[in-house]
Amino acid sequence: MRDVAGAWRRTAEGAGLLRTDPSGGGVVVGSTIFAEMTALAGRTGAINLGQGFPDEDGPAEVLEAARDAIARGANQYAPGPGIPELRQAIAEHQQRFYGLGHDPDGEVLVTTGATEALASALLALIDGPEDEVVVFEPYYDSYAACVALAGATLRTVPLRWPDFQPDLDELADAVTDRTRVILVNNPHNPTGTVFERRVLEEIVSLAHLHDAVVVSDEVYEHLTFDAPHLPVAALPGAAERTLTISSGGKTFRTTGWKIGWACGPAELITAVQTVKQFLTYTSGSPFQPAIAAGLRLPDAFFAGIAADMKRKSEILGEGLRAAGLAVSAPRGSYFTVADASSLGVADADAFCRGELAQAGVVAIPLTAFVTPERRAEYASLVRFAACKRTEVLDEAAARLAAYAR
């Protein structure tokens, strides 16, 4: 029987999950770094600061709205584009916070998490291997996998320690007439950086110059620490060629609900929906009215979650510095990146699986988010997640301090 190949292999290769079976059984697909490190935390009893999920529930109003929807019988298929109530709430949210006007009946699409929106967008917009997708490296691991699944070519722009802002000349070199999509993640996972306005303006300028679409992943939009979030679509000339993606998971601490969305011009939304309808068709019916309720919470809620995450990031940063690591102060998101080279660490992957886990804390090596060609540039960097209860972060800091001693 011939070797089976195709989209699954391209996807696994893009995610860096293919390896040779040492027993001679051919190639096997490994687990994601998140699954591996979460399992390591379970085996060792270490505090899991690797996978980015909160250990606290979201606001009571949102949880109660989901329970009420279940009790009311909202347990069957929702409309493919999402229930009208949620699409309207998303449109209101974009207008309220950013002054962006979207027609909820043609320019807003509800998806099964932001990851499905991203996958659907890339599958919809890519025509073949001659198309290129530009991403900022390090990148959320599903980006490379989805680009591979779509059959496109990945082009990366490096973000370098310690501020992780892209060099605009390198960005301009990466975007060409073959660029179909410029994929932006802002605030950025895994680095915690927030792109400066000049970076976003250059992205828009290059998209116009080379007739590219900007796909902007903004799931951490309400978790910025120093200034309000600036969507790409809010910049002059951007809205007409920008697909904005977000979700309720990070904002409302409901990552398991998988309710995301895409907003943009009707032509782009139609393309994404065409693919999405053959993936999940629809998304969690009782969770949609609950996320709609969350998007309509008062301003104090949104300011409060940003302040809370900033405080937690500061606690984590203090603990990392006390352990002797250099820290890149995040400007948003769940994540803080530290440089372990001051501890003599040259291989963050081995460090995270060995000494750090034995010290009682699990984190993710930044090399899990980069191409093989650039691993050396990030070899000593580690990503920690601050989206945990304060007492958990305090205990993690104490373990790190004990390790340092």
* E-strand count: 15
Detail the poorly predicted runs.
Answer: none
Going by CATH, the homologous superfamily of the largest domain would be: Type I PLP-dependent aspartate aminotransferase-like (Major domain)
> What is the count of structural domains?
2
The top-level CATH class of the largest domain is Alpha Beta
CATH architecture level-2 label of the largest domain: 3-Layer(aba) Sandwich
| Percent of residues in beta strands | 15-25%
Number of helices: 14
| Helical amount | 25-40%
- Average of per-residue pLDDT values: 94
- Give the CA-based shape: globular
Q: Structural class, please?
A: alpha/beta
Q: What is the CA-CA span between the terminal residues?
A: 58 Å
Assembly type: single chain
Largest sheet: 7 strands, mixed
Keywords:
14 helices, four-stranded antiparallel β-sheet, Aspartate Aminotransferase, domain 2, 405 residues, 2 domains, 15 strands, Aspartate Aminotransferase, domain 1, alpha/beta
Detailed description of the structure:
The protein is built from 14 helices and 15 strands. The protein has helices at residues 7-14, 33-44, 60-71, 84-98, 113-125, 141-150, 168-174, 197-209, 266-276, 287-295, 299-322, 348-353, 355-358, 390-404; strands at 18-20, 27-29, 47-48, 108-111, 132-137, 153-158, 179-185, 213-217, 242-247, 260-263, 326-328, 335-339, 361-362, 364-365, 381-385. A hairpin with a 6-residue loop joins β1 and β2. The longest helix is centred in the last third of the chain and has 24 residues, at 299-322. The mean pLDDT is 94.
